UniProtKB/TrEMBL annotation:
Keyword flag DNA-binding: yes
InterPro entries from the UniProt entry: Fis_DNA-bd, Homeodomain-like_sf, HTH_Fis, Trans_regulatory_Fis
Family annotation (PANTHER family): DNA-BINDING PROTEIN FIS
Protein name in UniProt: Putative Fis-like DNA-binding protein
Domain of life where this protein originates: Bacteria
Keyword terms, alphabetized: DNA-binding
Organism lineage string: Bacteria, Pseudomonadati, Pseudomonadota, Gammaproteobacteria, Kangiellales
UniProt domain DNA binding HTH: residue ranges: 60-100
Single GO molecular function: DNA binding
Annotated region (Disordered), positions in chain: 1-28
SUPFAM superfamilies hit by this protein: Homeodomain-like
UniProt similarity note: Belongs to the transcriptional regulatory Fis family.
Length: 103
């Protein structure tokens, strides 16, 4: 059993019972970790045994752009504040923003 199985089983059990309990946080207040676990399990199922490579880079690319967009919006495009929120230096932030055409 993997972390993915546990999360899915808890979610399915809660949905089947029609309950919303605090012990199953996914239904009422999903964590980022839970979202990632569900998404990864769905992705792996969709691949149906096909060879996988560079999954780490794929996931980072898929997560990094919306993260940067959200933080830039949150900080009203203030790069100094955004860099601080993200824990990056401003130069690294600018490099990442350019990579995704966000500058």
């Amino acid at each position: 059993m993997t972390i993915f199985d546990t999360t899915i089983n808890n979610q399915t059990a809660s949905l089947n019972q029609g309950t919303t309990s605090d012990s199953t946080s996914f239904q009422s207040n999903p964590t980022l970790r839970e979202h990632v676990a569900i998404s990864m399990q769905q992705y792996l199922k969709q691949m149906q045994g096909q060879p996988l490579s560079d999954v780490y880079d794929l996931v980072l690319t898929q997560v990094e752009e919306p993260l940067l967009r959200a933080i830039m919006e949150h900080t009203r495009n203030n790069q100094t504040k955004a860099a601080k929120v993200l824990g990056l230096n401003r130069g690294t932030l600018r490099k990442k923003l350019k990579r995704y055409n966000l500058l």
